[in-house]
Structures are given as structure tokens and as C-alpha cells.
Amino acid sequence: MTSDSNLRNGSPFVVPPLGGQLNSGQFSPNLQFKSPPKGGTTNRSVRVGESRMVKVTLISASLAFLGLFLFVPLAALFTQALAKGWGDYTAAVVDPDARTAIRLTLLTAAAVVPLNLLFGVAAAWAVTKFRFRGKNALVTLIDLPFAVSPVVSGLIFVLLFGTQGWLGEWLDAWGIQVIFAAPGVILATVFVTFPFVARELIPLMQSQGRDEEEAALVLGASGWSAFFRVTLPNIRWSLLYGVILCSARAMGEFGAVSVVSGHIRGQTNTVPLHVEILYNEYNYTAAFAVASLLCIVALLTLAAKKVVELKTRAFSAQLQLDEGEGRTL
Amino acid sequence: MSIYAQKINKSFGRFNVLRNVSVKVETGELLALLGPSGSGKTTLLRILAGLEQPDSGSVYLNEAEATFDDAGKRDVGFVFQHYALFRHLTVFENVAFGLRVKPRGKRPSRRQVDQRVRELLHLVQLESLADRYPWQLSGGQRQRIALARALAVEPKVLLLDEPFGALDAKVRKELRRWLRRLHQELRITSVFVTHDQEEALEVAHRVAVMHDGRIEQIGTPEEIYETPASPFVYNFLGNVNLFHGRLESGKAQIGYVRPFDLEVERAGDGNGTNAIEADIAHVSLIGALARLELRRSDNGELVEAEVTRDFLRNAGFKPGERVLVRPRKLRVFDGDYSI
Which among B71, B86, B171 has CB closest to A217? Predict the structure, then answer.
């Protein structure tokens, strides 16, 4: 980013206002330059409570906590999974029931993520680019799945689509089974994960405003063209971030899915449900082996999230510069 | 292309932004919509562009009704107050945008696009910045790119929303001059919104002064400045002194006098008819002018007078001195008008 450094050299006071927002690697050379030479402590700012003792105590407490509640269980999980060797581990993972569970989980994610992607973009678009009555109510409703216990969400779907439910008879007459089948699992997961994308996009799109879309429209672009050429590129990183969170949750969801799936082995079990069954059957090695798959997904998600976060930050750093420059020049 | 907005009404919720506004812009004319914030000038501009629909009233472009035409179909170029450049596209691509989104049949070839964009960048004197991104440009540069982007589709009308609002005074002045030159070159019908009276008077052929959703007065800069149609216009276009008085009928009246239309002489020097006694409270020098702050002896109100620096030097006025103030030119409006 050569141009980036040009800008920095050009304006003398960039480091202080941006320091807070940009803690990515790009700016570290500057920060090093500012820090006092080795051994010199005169320049170090004396903040309240910033003594060596406090610092060491806080850091070691955090590390101890993380170790106890994160690394130890994670290590235990993989140890337990591999306790009887690679053979048993692979056997547990390729077991037909496990494979069905994995397939259903992937199918669910593949169905849920595009649906919520569309819904999230549509909702964020509606909330941020239009004026209408009930906008605040809509924003609150988008958060509903976060507020409601997943078990309750599951029960709502049983109440709606179950054989005793409101639509049960009608669905039965058409020979459609929702509850205790894949559609139920997908519906429940859609419900639980729909805030992720919308929540990511709304603040960003709010801060970006409507000017650029309007500019595109005046220049003769159609609505679609304005969306694909202007809106989408502007929100791409946040959108991807929301999708990552949404898919992670879709694969890991337990509560709501547990209610609607019926735990039918080899048919309606997702990976988390399969783990629970194995565990309840005292089949610890298999349970941990399958659970380790979820863990790997989680770790991959974390890595992907980190990458996207860095990208988003670089992107919003540009926007920060954008605003700052506009005022000063 | 001429523009005619007829009896436009627009409200947001309970707030009436435009009340029965009619305005006509002749082909090739440069009109300024001047008014304080909240006077409805930007909304009127957005209605002309098709970015906003009026609640009632019509918009005619070239004498054809266009009230409900899409913004993209009106042949207008719009320059936004905060530029609204596409932040993910280079300067070149920003300018090329309007050409690239044209329907397939009308879309120019790659070479034509390239040539047109180079031409425009030359016109706004920013050829060297083609590969930069908007965030790498200064405010003045962004504004010129926004203008080049709007001109790329060869609009018949150019609409500018506070085009220099976000820039500092020096850049503003330069761009102002540049815009006027550009308009002389292109002769494109233009409307620009501003709250800066100096800008409006300096750049525009005609000025429409807006207040509270209405057009208070429309005319050439001279007309607007010399013969304001209402106390609001008087007040908005520069400093003014108010003298309260009463007609023989007993009706309250207020006289409006510009600071430079006040004669100031040392008390006792003249004959004192039609003059007001005042004390000099403060003298400040601004360039070639001197501003005198005078406190009336009869009611203690402050009056501002502007005289040349030379005059001040010859007269040798000092703060605390008693003087006589006489309006050279005074305009009277009814007293019940409140600003």
C-alpha cells in the first residue's frame, strides 16, 4: 500500500487520531519509531493503574483462565478422541450414522446460509435505504432469535408443523413431513441464525448512507446494476463475515434442532445431536471423535473470521481516512 | 434544456419542506438556490433530479412533463454535497461509470469510454490521478471528479447540491471561479444549491432566495442585492441595520439600511436633520474597509456602519466619540414581519 504511506507522510497528525482504530500491522513501524529508545522510561505515559504488578497479574489471570477453560478441554477432547488410536477415530467418523449426520449438517448449512444471506441483505437494505413506518420494530424483530431460547424456537415449529400442530393436518394430507425430518431441521436453523448477516450489515450500510446508490441511479444505472456495482462491493467484507458466523452457527446449532429432529439415528441426526447420542451411550471415544470434527470447523471459522476481520479493518481504515481527509483538505 | 417546476409541494411527515414552489430555469442559465438550512432548497433540487417525488405539482424538462420519470432517464447530472464517489472504484472507473451502465445498444466501446474519460479528466485538470482511489484525493479534487463523473453521460442539465460546502475558504473560491468558467465553456443549464450568499451572487446568473419552503425572491444578483423584496432577503444577503419607526397612520414600520449606506459625521459638524446621534463603541479594520460599531444615544441599540479606510483616517474617529448617523438609502417594510 504505497499510496497509504504517501498520505501518512503528507499529513503530520495522522498517527494520533488513527492509532486507536488501526492496530493492524501496517502502522506498527510508525509506532516503533515513536517509542523511546531502549532503557529510556521517561517517555512512558503513566496511566492510572498501569503498574507492572497490575499488568502481570491481569495477563497471567487471563492466560490461566483461557488455559483452564479453553486449551485444557480442547486438548482433552482430542486426547479422548484419539485414546484408542487412529483406527477407532476413523471408524467413528466414517460410521454410516455419523456420515448421515455429517451429510445432514452440511445440507442444512448449504440450505440455511444462502437463505439467510438473501434475507439478511434484503432486511439490511430495507432498513438502511428506505424510510418506512415500523422500521424500528423490524430491527427489533431481527434480534428476536438471539433473545429467545433455541428450545423455544424449536417448539414453535413443532407447534406449527407437528402432527398435532396448526398446519399438521394440511401438510399430512399432502404427504409432506416437516417435523422429525430434514425440512424441520432446516427451518429451525434458519430461524436461529437469521440475525447474523443482517446484524453485520445494518450498521455498516447505515454509516455508508444512500448517496452512492443515488449517484449510480442518476447516472442511469438500474436498481440491480446499482446493487451489484455499488452496494455489494461496499459491503462485501461485512457480508462475508456475517456468512461465516451464520454457517458456523448453522452447523453447531443444538437446542432448536434437537426439538424438531426427533433424534432418528441415521436419518434426522445432525452432528451435534449425533455426538449427544454417542455420549449418552457411553461411547466416549466415538463421541469425542465426532465432536472433534465440530471443533475443527470452529477453528477454521476462527481463522477465516480473523482474515476477514483484518480485511474489513483495512477497508474501514480507508473510510476513516476518507472522512478525515474530507474535512482537513 | 429548460427546467420548469410548477407548484411543487412536498412534506416529510408533518414538516412542509416545500410550499407551492414554482421556478423556471432557461436553457443555458446558471441558477442558484440560496437559503438557510431547512429552507427546502436541497429537496427542490432532488425533486428536479428525480431522487425525490413531489406530493403535488409537476416538473417539466424541455417543456415535457417529467415528474415521474426515473432519475436515470432525465438526462441530468447530479453532484452531491459529499461527492458520493464510488469508494471501491478508481477515479477513472468513477468517471466511466455512467458510460458502462448504459443499455447494451447505447454503450460506447472500450476505446470510446477510454477517450471520453481522458477528455473529462483533462477538463477537470486531474489526468494524473486516473488510477487513484477517492480516499486518496483532497476534497477539492474529489469535487472535480464528481463533476467529471456527472458530465460523462453528457447531461442536458447539471444539478449541484452545495458543491463547495465541505471545502475550506480558499479552495472554495478557486473552484467557484473554475465552475463559472466551465459553465461559460459548456453552456449547460445548471442549478446549484448554496447557503453562501457570496457564492450565489458571484457565480449565478439568477438567484432564487428560499425561506421556509417558499421562494422569497428570484432575480439577477444585482436585483436581489439592490432591491430585496422582503426583510428576509435583506437580512440573508449581508448585514443590515434596522430602524424602527411609525407612519403617521400609526402603523409600525421598520427601515432597513445596509452598513455601507450609512453616512457618519462628527456631531456638530452637520445640520443634524434626519440623523441619529450615536457613540462610537468599536472600530475594526477589514482590508480596505473600516467597520464602526455605534451605540445610539436615544435607545442604546447598536448600529453598524462601513466606511472606507481613507475616510476613517481623514475623519480621525476614535472610540467613545459622538457622531451623527444618516441613512443614505433606506427601505421600509411593515413592522409586523418577523424574521
Answer: B71
